[in-house]
Design a protein that fits this description.
Order of helices and strands: EEEEHEHEHHHHEHEHH
Number of domains: 1
Structural class: alpha/beta
Helix content: 25-40%
CATH architecture: 3-Layer(aba) Sandwich
Number of helices: 9
Number of strands: 8
């Protein structure tokens, strides 16, 4: 992987393909390898940029608290380094929160937006409290509890569960803690939706056990021009559970 220094961290990324710049942002608590299956189906149409969000994969993090806006600022800095003025930004789950923050902060730099297994709502109070409890548990006991809890919720496919488990187990506790707190404090992005004039793609597994598909339908209702794909039988990882269908949908951003 290549690395750049930005915002007091080292941000790691890979780049492949040619065409419209497309940034693929992974979810919590994973890394850019989430996109490995679908990337080969996209590189004929896109200049793919696949970063590890701060703290995850080979990227470093900071000890102080940070926000979704900080994650988005990291991506803006990466695009600056690559001399890319405008790109399509696609985010999976937490990566979708980062993509929404990027679209809010840098609308002139967005050629299209993709939300995969994500949502625009902020955490309700009980969910917010749960994230802070999870962060405290990781600080006290390590990441094992989160890994055990989340693995079966990603997908019912045992092979992909193994992938999710192995990916999570590679991550540093600081990445979990920072991301949990940032997600807990994120803003409701619903007000942003009416301003989205560029292409929007929404991809969601019908059987998603982490973020209900109703969240995707709500975004579609708020953004009538959005292209919504509901993936039958898929859980929280449609880019691996249904890579061809996911790739076809994302090509609406080319």
């Amino acid at each position: 992987m290549e690395k750049i220094k930005i915002n007091d961290i080292e941000l790691a990324y890979t780049r492949r393909g040619q065409g419209t710049p497309l940034v693929l942002l992974h979810g919590y608590p994973l890394d850019h390898h989430l996109w490995d299956d679908v990337a080969p189906l996209l590189e004929d149409a896109f200049d793919l940029i696949l970063p590890d969000l701060r703290g995850f994969g080979e990227s470093t993090t900071v000890d102080s608290p940070f926000t979704m806006d900080d994650y988005a600022s990291d991506i803006a800095g990466l695009l600056d380094q690559l001399e890319i003025q405008k790109a399509a930004i696609v985010g999976h789950s937490m990566g979708g929160y980062v993509a929404l923050a990027f679209a809010k902060l840098y609308p002139e730099r967005v050629s299209g937006l993709g939300l995969v297994s994500s949502q625009v709502l902020a955490d309700p109070p009980d969910r917010k409290e749960g994230r802070y409890k999870s962060a405290a548990d990781v600080s006290d006991k390590g990441i094992g509890g989160v890994v055990e809890t989340m693995t079966p919720k990603f997908t019912s496919d045992e092979r992909l569960q193994a992938f999710a488990r192995e990916t999570m187990e590679r991550q540093q506790p600081a990445a979990f803690i920072g991301a949990l707190k940032a997600m807990a404090e994120r803003m409701d992005s619903t007000p942003l939706l009416s301003s989205l004039k560029f292409p929007v793609v929404i991809i969601h597994g019908e059987a998603d056990a982490l973020i209900p598909i109703d969240r995707a339908r709500e975004v579609k209702n708020a953004v009538p021009h959005a292209h919504l794909v509901e993936v039958n039988g898929a859980g929280h990882m449609p880019m691996m559970e249904a890579k061809e269908e996911t790739a076809k949908a994302l090509k609406h951003l080319a």
